[in-house]
Design brief:
By secondary structure, this protein is an alpha+beta fold. It has seven helices and 24 strands. Strands 2-3-1-4-5-6 form a six-stranded mixed beta sheet, sandwiched between helices. Strands 7-8-14-11-10-15 form a six-stranded antiparallel beta barrel. The protein has a six-stranded antiparallel β-barrel with strand order 17-22-19-18-23-24. It starts with a strand and ends in an 11-residue tail after the last strand.
Length: about 425
């Protein structure tokens, strides 16, 4: 069964939680107790089903009727498994949307048919572009609130198309729906004039874009010494970023790119001849060399650098400062670093630089420049989501300050 990973987002009251509930209910992805809960809460509100109640898991979310934290929803779609990262819509939780969308390869964005494209919708679309999502589905929701008017839909579809083209999405889908009534979600319903696919048809047909094979094959998580029958073996516990690899493969190890050959691979307690991407395994090399946690095995020798210029979403409560010392988490390596410079924060809603905001405050996004104590290999996030991503941590409190990617700012830059 193939697995699809999407992030779903929308501005406040665009109907995201209701759409999630509708998809889960109409595709038979809910347990009987969840359906009973939707029915019970709906009866209290004079509704047949409270579709949004199943999506709001935190008590604060249920009380306020909003999404605060990222949650993952699982749907079975005609033999495919869809994992939806349910991200919040409020601007103050932009950082949660950034982290939730970072694990997806596409986005499902909602637009209120009555209120139109809003600032937060544009911000969500820009974050999706920044994180390399080449597939975006715009759902013009609440069509029942505008009497299913095709002219209103077309006007909003044109706006979505223009935004998508400016942000550079390669695969753009736009369709009208009504999550509350179920129109064009799983079945056509009252939108009889619509000749395109339903949302279920679109989601079922989506295919993740093929990525280039990353140069960084695996990150060393631990070095293990195993003694058996009087022999000592040095095994590397690896996290694979760009597999598959097989016994006999020739790779390059560490910052000095020393050539090595895979002698043996162990996975699931057994010896195997190969291992797929995104799987963990123990590997024995043909010779013992000095490798520690955080080192990389590469397909080809790569340039390692002690300077990085990532685009970051500032997650900390206090502003980021030039000159501040931080700890960089890159792959499985922790490296001391310093912020040497920072560009003006970006207004993602208007796709321009802020004219008034000068520092990186919580939930803001901008490019910073780092000087590192040790070199690391780095690639663009679009080519390699592992070595192209990083986290900044406060060395004193160990609190996460920022999450960053090596990527161009959508709509403003063409290269990173």
């Amino acid at each position: 069964m193939s697995i699809l990973r999407l992030a779903i987002a929308g501005s406040v009251d665009d109907g995201k939680s209701t759409l999630l509930g509708r998809l889960l209910h109409d595709t038979g992805s809910l347990r009987t107790d969840q359906v009973a809960k939707m029915t019970r809460i709906g009866a209290d509100k004079g509704m047949a089903l409270d579709l949004a109640s199943v999506a709001d898991g935190l008590k604060a979310e249920q009380e306020q009727g909003i999404t605060i934290d990222v949650a993952y929803r699982y749907l079975n779609l005609r033999g495919r498994r869809l994992i939806l990262a349910d991200t919040p819509g409020h601007e103050q939780y932009t950082r949660n949307m950034f982290t939730g969308a970072s694990t997806a390869w596409g986005s499902l964005l909602l637009v209120d048919a009555k209120r139109g494209l809003r600032e937060q919708t544009r911000r969500h679309a820009s974050i999706a572009a920044l994180l390399g999502h080449d597939t975006v589905v715009f759902c013009v929701n609440k069509m029942d609130a505008v009497d299913n008017d095709p002219a209103r839909y077309q006007a909003l579809a044109d706006e979505c198309q223009a935004l998508g083209e400016r942000l550079g999405f390669k695969h753009l889908h736009i369709l009208p729906i009504s999550a509350l009534t179920g129109d064009n979600v799983v079945t056509r319903g009252a939108l009889t004039w619509w000749e395109g696919d339903t949302l279920l048809d679109v989601l079922t047909a989506l295919e993740p874009a093929a990525r280039a094979q990353p140069a960084q094959v695996a990150s060393v998580q631990a070095v293990m010494i195993e003694q058996s029958e009087g022999q000592t073996r040095r095994l590397l516990a690896l996290r694979f970023a760009g597999g598959p690899i097989a016994v006999g493969d020739r790779l390059f190890a560490g910052v000095h790119a020393r050539p090595v050959t895979i002698k043996a691979i162990y996975s699931g307690g057994a010896s195997v001849t190969s291992v797929a991407s995104n799987r963990d395994a123990l590997v024995e090399l043909d010779e013992e060399i000095d490798l520690t946690r955080g080192d990389w095995l590469q397909r080809e020798p790569q340039t390692w650098t002690k300077t990085l210029s990532p685009v970051v979403c500032w997650l900390g409560e206090r502003p980021g400062r030039v000159g501040e010392k931080v700890v960089l988490r890159h792959g499985d390596r922790w490296v001391k670093a310093q912020i040497t410079d920072a560009s003006q924060p970006v207004d993602l809603a208007e796709l321009c630089y802020h004219s008034t905001q000068q520092s990186l405050e919580s939930n803001s996004i901008g490019r910073i420049h780092l000087r590192l104590a040790q070199p690391v290999p780095a690639a663009s996030f679009a080519d390699d989501p592992v070595s192209g991503a990083m986290v900044l941590v406060d060395p004193a409190t160990r609190q996460t300050l920022a999450a960053g990617v090596i990527a161009p700012i959508p709509g403003l830059e063409t290269t990173a």
